[in-house]
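Sample 3 of the quickstart, ligand heme C:
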Amino acid sequence: MSKPGRILACSFILCGVFAFLFVTAKASNAEGIPNSCVECHSKLPQGSFVGAKAHGWKGSVHQMHGVTCDKCHGGNPNAAKKEAAHKGVLGSSNPESRVYFKNVPSTCGECHGAEEFKFKQSLHYRNLEKTGKGPECVTCHGSMIITVLTPADMAAVCGMCHSKTGMAHATPDIPQYAKAVLLSLREGSALINADEELYHPAKGSPEASALTDARIALHSAKLDWHRFDLETITRHLLKAYDSLGELPPKEQKNK
Ligand code: HEC
Ligand code: HEC
Ligand code: HEC
Ligand code: HEC
Ligand code: HEC
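Result:
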């Protein structure tokens, strides 16, 4: 199954398949105190919905960085008993829940504030607030299994709505456009890394400042991605490429 397929399957058929991927792992915080959410949910029946969610989280970038269940769901991870641990944990269909779809941007934004800030300026967010429809963080990244979209994912993920039959049928060309923009974003990123290796610029040198300018422009492009302003992203990218263009040819530098 393709990656966007997996994200969709996860939301819609409730991660059942991940039950098979179950592996037991010790979960503890920085002080070595076990996290009761992870401990207990890992032991829940593998085929169950609430057990499967824990399996999906395992191996994710969030698990590796200690972003445990309670960080998104609330509750008390130091309480061993279910009732005490669940204090404040609400199901995702409850509008008061931290993971109710309209509240997801703020919950994720507690750690990803820059993305949240840009996202809240987007048409997507306005649409979500107004109609309850529109992509939010989980639509594009998954919740437990955090992934970052690749250019190849655009057709499926953006095309859910930006297609002749979708919710945003007025703009069916967007997936193709977005794919091209994301491709040049990734190429820009790879190019900057390659040039840094090549030049090893000394601090304060013109090469170093050209590379810094390129990095700043690339970072702006990444953040503006969350406003989905493809023209502005493209402008930032052109700026990054311009800065790289200021680097002297390598032979000249070594003369
Ligand atoms: C001792 C076991 C145990 C502990 C500890 C525990 N849970 Fe649960 N959790 C369950 C079980 C069992 C369910 C299934 C529903 C039920 O029985 O309440 C569940 C359900 C859930 C649900 C689904 C709620 C819904 O209404 O759909 C979430 C979310 C959740 N737990 C998160 C957490 C978080 C976050 C923590 C830690 C702060 C935690 N759990 C700690 C056993 C536990
Ligand atoms: C990065 C944030 C994040 C982390 C970490 C996280 N979850 Fe979730 N979880 C969500 C979001 C958002 C939803 C609702 C959307 C969905 O179902 O994909 C959700 C849904 C759920 C559900 C389905 C019930 C419901 O309320 O819809 C369960 C059960 C659950 N999570 C348990 C866990 C457990 C157990 C862990 C830790 C092993 C965990 N989650 C870690 C964000 C998170
Ligand atoms: C408690 C803090 C915290 C919360 C809440 C949180 N994250 Fe993260 N997230 C992190 C950390 C730490 C990393 C890893 C370091 C980094 O990339 O910044 C990360 C990484 C990511 C990445 C990058 C993955 C990669 O492979 O580079 C994405 C995408 C992401 N999170 C999305 C989300 C989404 C969506 C939510 C809400 C459902 C969320 N995060 C909630 C802390 C958090
Ligand atoms: C419509 C799809 C979409 C939505 C909605 C979305 N993102 Fe993203 N996000 C992306 C794409 C595409 C990238 C990858 C850009 C790249 O390759 O650097 C990304 C990248 C990220 C990254 C990693 C940035 C990095 O430097 O690698 C984080 C963290 C993140 N998003 C968090 C969020 C949060 C938090 C939300 C909700 C407020 C959100 N995203 C909403 C599509 C989306
Ligand atoms: C859940 C549905 C949904 C998904 C998924 C979605 N969009 Fe949208 N998008 C909308 C809606 C609704 C609008 C509001 C304007 C409209 O109706 O065309 C919009 C507007 C936009 C706009 C602004 C169009 C304009 O005319 O100003 C851009 C750019 C955009 N989306 C890009 C994307 C990209 C890139 C993706 C995939 C990473 C994506 N969208 C995924 C629903 C969605």
